[in-house]
Amino acid sequence: MNKNVNIIIDGKTITAKEHDNLLNVARQNGFDIPGLCYHPRLSPTGACRLCVVKIEGTNGLVMACTVQVKDGMKITAFDEELENNRRHTLSYLLAEHNEEYDETYHDEFRPLIERYNLKEVAQRPIKSIWQNIPRVVDDTSPVLTYDSSKCIRCFRCIKACEEIQGKGVLSFADRGIQKYIVAGTGKWGSSECDGCGECIQLCPTGAIVEKPHRNIINIYKIDKKVVTSCPYCGVGCQIEVWTQNNQIVRVNGVEDVSPNYGRLCVKGRFGYQYANDRERLTQPLIRKNGKLEPATWDEALTLVANKFNEIRQKYGKKALAGYSSAKCSNEDNYIFQKFIRLAFGNNNVDYCTRLCHASTVAAMIRSLGDGAGSNSIEDFETTDCLIVIGNNIIETHPVTATFIKRGKQKGQKIIVIDPKWTPLVKYADLFLQPRLATDVALLNGMMHVIIKHHLINEKFIEERVEGGMQAYEQLKELVMKYTPDLVEQITGVPEKLFTEAAIMYATAPTAMIATGMGMSQQTVGTNNVFALLNMCLITGKIGRERCGINPPRGQNNVQGATDVGASPVMYPGYIPVTNEENRKKVAKIWNVPFEELDPNPGLTTLEIMDAAHEGIIKGMYIMGENPVITDPNQLHTIEALQNLEFLVVQDIFHTETTAYADVVLPATSLFEKDGTVVNSDRRVLRLRKVLEPTGEALPDWKIIVEIAARMNINIGNYLNEEEIWNEIRQVAPILSGITYERIEKQGIQWPCYDEYHPGTSTLYKDKFNTSSGKAKIYPVEYQEQSEKTSAEYPLVMNSGRILYQYHSATLSRKSDVLNAYASESYILIHPDDAVKYKIQDRKKVKVCSPRGELITTAIISDEVLPGEVFMPWHFHESPVNALTRNEKDPISKIAPFKYSVVKLEAI
Amino acid sequence: MKNDFPYISLKNVDKADLTKIENYLHFGGFSAIKQSLGLSADEIIDRIKKAGLRGRGGAGFPTGLKQSFTKTSCEVCLQKYVVCNADEGEPGTFKDRYIMEKNPFAIIEGMIIAAYAIGANKGYIYIRGEYEQAIRTMQAAIDDCYRYDWLGKNIAQSNFSFDIDIYIGAGSYLCGEELTLIESLEGKRGYPRIKPPFPAEKGLWQQPTLINNVETFSHIPFIINEGYEAYACIGTAESKGTKLFCVSGNLKQTGVFELPMGITLRELIYDVCGGMLEGFEFKAALLGGAAGTFVDASFLDVPLAYETLKQKGATLGSGAVMIIDQATNLKDLLINILEFFKHESCGKCVPCRIGTTLIYERCKKAQLLPDDINWLIQQTEYMSRNSLCPLGQSPILPVKSFFTYFNV
Amino acid sequence: MQNKQTEEQVLEILKQFKPEKSEILKALHALQNAHPLHYITEEAITQTARYFKLTTGQVYGVVTYYSMFSVKPRSPFIIRLCKSPVCYMKGSLNLWNYLSQKLLLNENNISSDDLFTLEPSECLGHCEQAPAMMINEQVFTNLSPKKIDQIIDDFKRKYHEK
Ligand SMILES: Cc1cc2nc3c(=O)[nH]c(=O)nc-3n(C[C@H](O)[C@H](O)[C@H](O)COP(=O)(O)O)c2cc1C
Ligand code: SF4
Ligand code: SF4
Ligand code: FES
Ligand code: FES
Predict the structure, then answer these.
(1) What is d(CA B255, CA B245) in angstroms, rounded to the nearest whole number?
(2) What is the pLDDT of residue C1?
(3) Which end of chain A, N or C, is more open, meaning fewer C-beta atoms within 10 Å of its C-beta?
(4) Looking at residue A606, what is its pLDDT?
(5) What angle do CA A688, A690, A692 make, to 5 degrees?
(6) What pLDDT, in 10s, does the model give residues A855-866?
(7) CB C116, CB C103: distance < 8 Å
(8) Cβ-Cβ contacts under 8 Å for B273 (sequence gap 6 or more)
């Protein structure tokens, strides 16, 4: 932290931090010095020349935005000369500027024109010249329009794109008075721009304006501006949502607040259209004569309650199960798991986490004690070395990636390990491309290198690893078998590359790992993460600031749902259900006899589906999930659902799963909800109601409470979400200290044990959360896949996400903007394979696996290795999970979405 | 006129083809390096300071001082750089081209000594893209130096190593401004950086960088070889040594002339260049290029030196001396110069981007009334106080001097 | 003559330069000079961006900043006629008009025979022999209409001989 210094502005003494930006300091202290090119999030530019001041001892005029505060500085911010200068500068700018204004954007320039008495043309010392300057308009982007006649050439958009988003898509073209902004070679639509809209947010004059809703938005007629959390991925970006007539018309990033500090990605800024979509569910539906027909709430709720009771009586409590939702709030999920445990009398509650990071969580809990990322999002910028493995972070967590790209600008070392090229490779120092599902071999090989080069951290192992050097010796014995030759042979990664990577990681003063679905969604998912953890532990790259391991989470509330107990094995706050003490404590808070709480672990997501398939589960309650698309082996899932006696699906849209439901209950969307979520770095963030509910839709938790009441289950009375949250705080000690009031402006990271606890930015600084307080090494061997390529199925298919669509795309495909960028399924195939299997670029192909088949478009690309293909799984018309299998990782029960043998046929 | 002065930048160029390294060596070339390698860095810088050498790029900043700033600006740096500014874009200036084409090794020798003095191992010569011949000559000279071990590792068997690369500009006057030149060297658009920090602190790739003009570097070998006294006794009180004057216009002789600082315009025109061409009369001169000042006949006997011209509100600048005769339409010439600024403004800052257009357009008015003239001067004054870099601060020089001496 | 630059040709040229930022301007010069129509194509910009790890926008920005570069097709010969003060005093404006008429320039200042592009230039540093111009890398000074006739005819002749 810089020291405090005193400066004097216009006679007033002000305390500031040394080296702080003078313009910023002055403005914070009430000196409203004008300035258009400066933005607190950007490096100073000094282009507009409006922020002129005088500094004693310095000749001439100085631009405040380019000055760092020094002790004893004496500044004149306002006098006649300075104000005259500013007025003159403004009148220059005005001469160059097209003043038409349509009230569709916030303009920082106009108020200055009034303030300096330049509104009337007669008052202006300089005549307009903008009409004579070539006007460039670029309307090719799906999200924005640029008009050079409104551009004041302030560099804010360029710097927003480069310094904040790390993309550098924009530049000026030409020079002098003719210069204008370009993306690419002059067409935004075909440039590298990915539509995050950072430049729109930072443009001060409407030269770059947002396209969507331009025809209806009027910034003087905005009804509401509400801050809430983004409904898409697990970064948890804070957004300010503007509405007109109960319709979202604009979304901006909230400046100055973590985790995103104003930044957004294309989905967060433009993906909101679904909230007002006409296809939203508006009333309860009951299946009558095979068709879903509208019903009243009372009808539907009573039916659901009766049916659940009936099944429980007829088949016993093992016959019911529920899927909770990573898209719902903590409060919804908490009530849902409470409902399952009390109304169904079992622990059969799980959700899609099982499909993404269950293996990661399983390994982390066993080894470290907590199943969450150990660091803060900010650390992605400041760590010295970052391994990104099995994680297409630029596309799946675009805002986290901005921190990485900024780190790169400051010299961070980046190692990308992925069987498929990802955009982060452009920023990487090293790119290792192992064959699919050979990660354990690669990581063991890297540890072999680390050990051989004596780069282990003995002190750390002695002090912080259970069993100390003895445990290490066991690991060593195992990994020493992974000789470079063997590893190169298994993984296909050259020895030189993984040696360099291992040394780079081990020798960096601080280093972090970001792991992703590429690691977790395998039959060896848990082992993959154990291998990563072993590498962290022997090098001591965890348990300190800017060191650790992080699995950025896919859904906006995957983290929170488990935190508040949507788990077959754990109560809220990671308290095992099998422990009697725990059950007693929970029963007391819930005000129920403790015998009513089932001491046995419940079924996991895929086990539930299997049990349904086998006829053990008869009734299911699915809240906000779409297993037909998201679960592996689609045919199996459909059969299971058809096999149920009673299926309730609660959602905001019809999905592929509602097709099999007996009752469909309309819930409110995230924009219609109050509550909280937890993001990837364990930050509890607020959700706030932006829109009135659609039709008769109700908040998820209210629906659950109503069903419980009709089942005569004492689930509690809650007036609002805050009351539910306060109960969660009682049950889950890690969340105890976090109140709605404390997170009004800024989230807090758990664990946070009491209201004075500041929250925890880095986990395990003092001890690990295991019983011994030490971390555990679990040596793991590389295992070959049981699924093998053959003459019939010669290729291995990998699957994953892309920037512009989201999961099963129920939400994202409602957005015209996102569809404009990407709305079609495809499969990537290596040029060599394309020749071999006679596949043509951008032509339709049939993809078959032993489980099923689908049709998509082939794209020939060297982003994949020979022998491997890649498909995004967002598109229901080409459902990737028709091809995947439901074999499970033995520990975490996750499915191998990343490894299916397939063949391709041109059609 | 004093005839008894030694040539420095153009030493021996009349005697042999000095683009050949053998010839340069024959006339004692590179002996200054050998001497310097035996001196401490501080001793070298001290000699440059005592010689009174001032930068020949236009601003006249004391070269020794700049060297010591660059030397001491950081204790441990990744790297320091020496950059030779050969962008020569100032209209009416062509001396750097002349030196590069005639005496390339002197520039390199000067750079090597400067690099040794400040502790740099890498140098660039930034030559404007239009100077094809100079680029070729300099490249050949650099290649020769590597061949003869005057560049590269362990120069003259010392511990000192130094590399030079040529960088080629692509048509931007502003890129001659030192911090803009550095931006350009980094492969970017030529936008000036905010000062401070100066290049001596944070230059190329944010490392300390010594940047001097071609002519400046070419003076260093002489100072080392002949001693600073020999140098300091040439010129005037505050302008030491010789200067290359670039004389153009309708004179009997035009070209680059190396002369002691302090020579008068009259001597230059009538003694050195043999007077005006038949049918032409001296009317005015533009000293220092577009970013220079107009002077009239009253200046004929003012010594051409930094301090003497400054006293009279004029500037020596790069050494351009454009002689204007009675046949030239003065106002058209002013418009021409203002068009130049408009064309070369990078457009980063408001006063210059818009101001250069405004004054150009106003000046084109058929008849300039006193109001127009006041307005023009006001704008250039405003620009000079508010612009980010010297380009926008410059139009005041020609504009104000123009209206001081001439009415249109 | 082929008026195109293939992707391979572009890559071949780029490979001559170290992939360091301080080589970009040199690479762009080389690409432009190697193109029969003396300009920098979109393909060249895309490849240059990839080679130097920049975005196309950044390279486009650089190309359009410097007046020696062009993103528009030009012609085998680029005439840069100085119009800075000294040449101006010595009549470069007349020479401009003379050349325009002689070459029958179109709206892009390209001659009717598609061989020459006429561009104004700032001071070329040959003021002692003003007026001056360059054709590609060659400098011509002390120009007069007569001298220009000779030079242009020379270029035409040599071009057609090739
Ligand atoms: C617009 C502008 C253009 C300039 N062009 C040149 C130039 O072409 N050559 C040069 O040596 N200095 C030029 N300068 C001066 C340089 O900024 C810098 O002062 C000089 O390179 C320092 O070298 P010196 O100390 O040896 O003079 C220019 C300055 C400005 C403001
Ligand atoms: S488009 Fe907007 S942000 Fe960009 S330079 Fe122009 S005015 Fe500034
Ligand atoms: S003064 Fe002119 S040239 Fe200098 S930064 Fe401003 S606009 Fe650019
Ligand atoms: S805000 Fe300081 S120059 Fe623009
Ligand atoms: S003015 Fe034309 S060459 Fe200098």
Answers:
(1) 8
(2) 46
(3) N
(4) 84
(5) 120
(6) 899 999 999 989
(7) yes
(8) B247, B251, B252, B253, B254, B257
Domain boundaries, chain A: 4-78, 130-276, 285-292+301-356+556-734, 373-549, 795-906
How far, in Å, CA of B354 to CA of B366, rounded? 21
Q: Please say if the pLDDT value at position A1 is more than 70.
A: no
Is the Cβ pair B186, C134 closer than 8 Å? no
CATH domain B21-232 topology: Rossmann fold (3.40.50)
CATH pick for A795-906 out of 2.40.160.20, 2.40.40.20, 3.40.47.10, 1.10.287.3610: 2.40.40.20
Which is it for the CA torsion A662, A665, A666, A671, positive or negative?
A: negative
Contact in structure between A876 and A655 (CB atoms under 8 Å): no
**CATH number for the segment(s) B242-325:** 3.10.20.600
B387 touching A, CB under 8 A? yes
| Per-residue pLDDT tens digits for A662-679 | 999 999 999 999 999 999
Chain B 92-131, CB below 8 Å of chain C: which residues? 92-94, 96-97, 124, 128-131
pLDDT tens digits along C105-151: 999 999 999 999 999 999 999 999 999 999 999 999 999 999 999 99
Distance from CA of B169 to the nearest CA of A (A): 16
Choice from B90, B344, B348 to test ligand 1 binding pocket (greatest atom count within 8 A of CB): B90
Rounded to a whole number of angstroms, the distance from the CA of B342 to the nearest CA of chain A is 7
CB contact (8 A) between residue A169 and residue C64 = no
> Judging by DSSP bridges, how do beta strands B163-168 and B122-127 pair with one another?
parallel
A147 pairs with which residues across the strands?
A: A137
Q: Which residues line ligand 5 (CB under 6 A)?
A: B 91-92; C 82, 84-87, 123-127, 130, 132
Residue A50 CB less than 6 A away from ligand 4: yes
As for the ipTM of the complex, it is 0.96
Tokens of B88: 């020569």
Q: Residues lining ligand 2, CB < 6 A?
A: A 151-157, 181, 203-205, 207-208
Report the residue among B389, B393, B396, B397 best suited for mutation to probe ligand 3: largest number of ligand atoms under 8 A from its CB.
B389
CA nearest A439: which of A902, A898, A900, A901?
A898
Ligand nearest to the CA of B387: 3
Return the bridge partners of A876, or none.
Answer: none
Average pLDDT for B49-70? 96
Q: Which of A171, A174, A175 sits opposite C57 (nearest CB)?
A: A171
Q: What's the CA-to-centroid distance between A183 and ligand 2, angstroms?
A: 12
Residues with Cβ within 8 Å of A505's Cβ and at least 6 positions away in sequence, in order, are: A385, A387, A415, A446, A450, A511, A535, A539, A541
pLDDT of residue A821: 87
Write the DSSP string, B220-265.
HHHHHHH-HHHHHTSB-SSSBSEEEEEEESSBSS-EEEEEETT-BH
Ligand 3 binding residues, C-beta < 6 A: B 174, 192, 345-349, 352-353, 387-389, 391-392
Helices C42-51 + C7-14 axis angle, to 10: 40
CATH H-level, domain A373-549: superfamily: Dimethylsulfoxide Reductase, domain 2 (3.40.228.10)
Q: How far is CA A888 from CA A133, A391, A570, B315, in A?
A: 65, 21, 20, 83
Which of A171, A175, A186 is the closest to C58 by Cβ? Answer: A171
Domain spanning C77-161 has what CATH number?
A: 3.40.30.10
CATH 3.30.70.20 fits A130-276, yes or no: yes
A65 C-beta closer than 6 A to ligand 4: yes
Least confident range of A367-376, A464-473, B6-15: A367-376
DSSP string, A572-637: TTTEETT-HHHHHHHHHHHTS-GGGS--S----HHHHHHHHHHTS--EEEEES--HHHHSSSHHHH
pLDDT at A586 over 80: yes
